[in-house]
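Hi everyone, sorry if this is the wrong subforum. Our group has a chain we'd like a structural model of before ordering constructs, and none of us has done structure prediction before. Sequence below.
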Amino acid sequence: MSQALHQERLMTVIKGPHFSEKASIVAESGNQVVFKVRADASKAEIRQAVELLFEVKVEGVSVVNVKGKQKRFGRTMGRRSDWKKAYVRLAEGSQIEFMGAEG
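Answer:
Right subforum, don't worry. Here is the predicted structure as C-alpha cells:
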C-alpha cells in the first residue's frame, strides 16, 4: 500500500470520541482516551491514527467489540449495529482535549 493510501486509511480509522461514565473514569485515573473506531481496524492502525491526528505518544491500545442491542421498532424486532471501541493509553505528559468536553 502506498504511503498516501495508508495515510488516507489512517484518517478514517477513528470515527470519534466515546463519552460515557466509564470513559471519564479511565480518563481521570489512567490517562486513557476512548474512541469509536472502524470495525476492521487493528491495534497498530489505531495507534498510528491517534499519533498522526492528535500528535501525541501512545503507550498502548486495548479494543472491545461491542455487540448491538436488540430493539423493538413497533411490532417488529430490530438490532443495532455492532461497533468497535478502543481504549488508548497515552504516554506520561501527553493529553488530548476535546472541544465541548468537560473534565
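For your construct planning: The radius of gyration is 16 Å. The beta strands are 14-17, 32-37, 58-66, 70-73, 76-79, 83-90.
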